[in-house]
Design a protein that fits this description.
Layout lengths: L1 E10 L2 E13 L3 E5 L4 H4 L1 H11 L8 E8 L11 H11 L11 E3 L2 E2 L5 E2 L4 H10 L3 E5 L3 H5 L6 E4 L2 H8 L6 E2 L23 H13 L3 E4 L6 H6 L10 H13 L14 E2 L7 H5 E2 L4 E2 L1 H4 L4 E4 L7 H5 L2 H6 L1 E5 L4 E5 L3 E6 L15 H8 L4 H5 L3 E4 L17 H18 L13 H7 L4 H14 L3 H17 L7 H9 L7
Parallel strand pairs: 3-4, 5-8, 8-9, 11-18, 11-19, 12-15, 15-18
Antiparallel strand pairs: 1-2, 2-4, 6-7, 9-10, 13-14, 16-17
Helix pairs in contact: 2-3, 7-16, 7-19, 18-20, 19-20
Length: 501
C-alpha cells in the first residue's frame, strides 16, 4: 500500500509544495528516500524510525520503505520533512485512514521520542498553502508565525501522536493564535539623546532616516560612530504589517524566527569584518539569505568598512542598486529581497588618528582609501566626518534631541513621500528611479546651477549627481518645502567629505 502526505520545500523566500509518497513492502528492513534529497532529509530515516517505535507504531520491523519526494528534480533540504514522512508511513501501514491528511500541508522535525521541534520557513509554507486553499499543521513553536498569514487554517501539535489522533478523528489540535499586529515598543531602541555633541552627524542621521539614504561615518576611534549607527533604527518609522511579513519571511527561511513569531522591530545587523562573502551577500553550499537580506526593511551596519574583504564589499553593489540579490548555483538561481539602509564606519586613515596626529605616510593613506572602490562609494549618499568629541561635552546634562522628537520629523517627511509615491509604489526618496527623477524631484534654477557647478569641480559621477538630488529632496521634505532650493542642495553637498578629499 502507498501512503501520501504533503510537505513543502524552500526556494529562496518562497515555499513549493512537495508530495511525499511512501511504499511499504515485505523484505529486508530498509528505508530509501529518493527525489533529490539533501543530507538532512536522508537522516530523517533514523529520526522517523525511532519516533515511530517510541510512539508505539511498530511498522518497520521487517519491511522495506521507499519514499519519494515529488517533484523529484527540486532540491530538498532541512528537517521539515520528518513529519510528512512519518504520516505517509502510517497511512501506508493502515494506522491513519487513507486520505485523512488530504487538504493540509505538514511540516515538523521529529525527535527520537516523537516530539515535534520547530522548523525553518513556517510563514512561506503557510503562504503557499493559502494559495492552494489548504490548511497547515506545524509544531506549536511555529504556530504564531504561520498564523500571521491571513486566510489559512493553522493547527499546532507538540508530538507525532497528537497529529495521528487528529487525523484519526479522536482529538482536536490547538489552532494557531492570530493577534492584532502592533510594532515593537519604542523603548526597545537606544535613544539619540545619549549622544553628546556631533551635531552634523546627528543631522546626517536624521536625513538618512527621513529619506532611506545610505550613510558613511568617518572619524577616529571613540568619536561615536557606532553609537550613532545603533540609534538609526529608533529614528525610522514603525514597521507596517506588510514590512513585518516581508522581514519575517526572510528570517524564517534563515531559521531565526523559531519560537519568536513575527519580526516587529526593524532589523539591525552588524556582521564582523571577518565575515565571508556568502554570509554577507548570501549563498553557501545550501543557499541561505545573507546579512544584506536579513537587514531587509532595517539597517546593515558595517564597522571598520575598509577591513572587509574586497570581494564581499563589491558584492554589495547589486543589492544597494537593485534592492535584491541573486544567488546563482549550478542547479538553481535564487533571489532574496535586500532593501536595507547601509550605515558604514571607518577611520580616517590606517593608524586611526587622522589630522595632525596622523602617523601614516601619504602612500599609506592612499592605500587605505583605495580599499573602497569608487563604484561602491558612489552608492553611498551621505559621507560625514565625525571628529573626536571634547571631553568637556561629555558631562551630564546638555543632551541633544531625543529619538522621539527626531522621529516625529522623520515620520512627517516619510508621509510626504508616501503621498508623492502613491502611484509608483515607492516608500522613500532613496527608491526614486531614473525614469521618475525629473518628475518627482522639482528643483529651482539656482539649486540646479549650484549642483552642476560643484559636481563639475568635484568630478561627481552621474550616479552621485542623482543621489544628491534625492538627498536634497529629503532635506526639503524635512522643512516642508515642495521645491528644492539652493540651501537644500548646499547642505546635501556638505555630506560628501570623501569627494572633497
Amino acid at each position: 500500500m502507498i501512503g501520501h502526505c504533503v510537505g513543502a520545500a524552500l526556494r529562496g523566500v518562497e515555499a513549493v509544495l512537495v508530495r511525499v509518497e511512501v511504499d511499504l513492502a515485505p523484505g529486508l528492513p530498509q528505508f530509501n528516500i529518493v527525489g533529490l534529497a539533501g543530507k538532512a532529509v536522508h537522516e530523517a530515516r533514523v529520526r522517523v524510525r525511532s519516533a515511530l517505535d517510541n510512539a508505539g507504531y511498530d511498522l518497520l520491523g521487517t519491511r522495506r520503505v521507499t519514499a519519494n519526494l515529488a517533484p523529484a528534480d527540486l532540491p530538498k533540504e532541512g528537517t521539515g520533512y520528518d513529519l510528512p514522512l512519518a504520516l505517509a508511513v502510517l497511512e501506508a501501514g493502515g494506522v491513519i485512514p487513507e486520505g485523512a491528511s488530504k487538504g493540509r500541508v505538514f511540516a515538523g522535525e521529529l525527535s527520537l521520542s516523537g516530539a515535534l521541534k520547530p522548523v525553518r520557513g513556517a510563514l512561506p509554507l503557510a503562504d503557499a498553502a493559502r494559495a492552494r486553499g489548504l490548511g497547515v499543521v506545524v509544531p506549536k513553536q511555529n504556530g504564531d508565525e504561520a498564523a500571521a498569514v491571513p486566510g489559512v487554517e493553522v493547527r499546532t501539535a507538540t508530538t507525532l501522536a497528537e497529529v495521528v489522533e487528529f487525523l484519526r478523528g479522536t482529538r482536536e489540535l490547538e489552532a494557531g493564535k492570530t493577534s492584532e499586529f502592533a510594532p515593537a515598543p519604542e523603548r526597545s531602541a537606544p535613544d539619540l539623546a545619549d549622544v553628546r555633541g556631533q551635531q552634523r552627524a546627528r543631522r546626517a542621521l536624521e536625513i538618512a532616516a527621513a529619506g532611506g539614504h545610505n550613510l558613511l561615518l568617518v572619524g577616529p576611534p571613540g568619536s561615536g560612530k557606532t553609537m550613532l549607527a545603533k540609534r538609526l533604527p529608533g529614528l525610522l518609522p514603525p514597521m507596517s504589517f506588510a514590512e513585518s511579513i516581508e522581514t519575517t519571511r526572510i528570517h524564517s527561511v534563515a531559521g531565526l524566527t523559531r519560537r519568536a513569531g513575527l519580526v516587529r522591530a526593524r532589523p539591525f545587523r552588524a556582521p564582523h569584518h571577518s565575515a565571508s562573502d556568502a554570509s554577507l551577500v548570501g549563498g553557501g553550499g545550501v543557499p541561505r539569505p545573507g546579512e544584506v537580506s536579513l537587514a531587509h526593511n532595517g539597517v546593515l551596519f558595517l564597522d571598520e568598512l575598509p577591513e572587509f574583504r574586497r570581494t564581499g564589499l563589491e558584492g554589495l553593489r547589486q543589492p544597494l542598486e537593485d534592492r535584491l540579490v541573486t544567488v546563482t548555483r549550478v542547479r538553481e538561481s535564487l533571489t532574496y529581497p535586500a532593501s536595507f539602509q547601509l550605515v558604514a564606519a571607518m577611520n580616517p586613515c590606517a593608524c586611526g588618528r587622522g589630522g595632525a596626529e596622523c602617523e601614516c605616510s601619504a602612500l599609506s593613506q592612499q592605500r587605505y582609501r583605495a580599499r573602497l572602490s569608487a563604484p561602491l562609494l558612489d552608492r553611498i549618499d551621505l559621507m560625514v566626518e565625525v571628529p573626536r568629541v571634547p571631553l568637556s561635552s561629555l558631562r551630564a546634562g546638555g543632551e541633544g534631541e531625543s529619538s522621539a522628537v527626531v522621529r516625529e520629523r522623520v515620520v512627517a517627511a516619510r508621509a510626504l513621500q508616501s503621498a508623492r509615491f502613491a502611484s509608483t509604489g515607492g516608500r522613500s526618496n532613496a527608491e526614486i528611479g531614473p525614469s521618475e527623477l525629473s518628475r518627482l524631484v522639482v528643483i529651482d534654477e539656482e539649486g540646479r546651477a549650484l549642483l552642476e557647478l560643484v559636481g563639475e569641480r568635484l568630478r561627481l559621477s552621474a550616479r552621485v549627481y542623482s543621489r544628491m538630488l534625492k538627498v536634497s529632496r529629503t532635506i526639503a521634505d524635512l522643512e516642508g518645502d515642495e521645491v528644492i532650493g539652493r540651501r537644500h542642495v548646499s547642505e546635501a553637498l556638505m555630506y560628501r567629505c570623501l569627494d572633497r578629499g
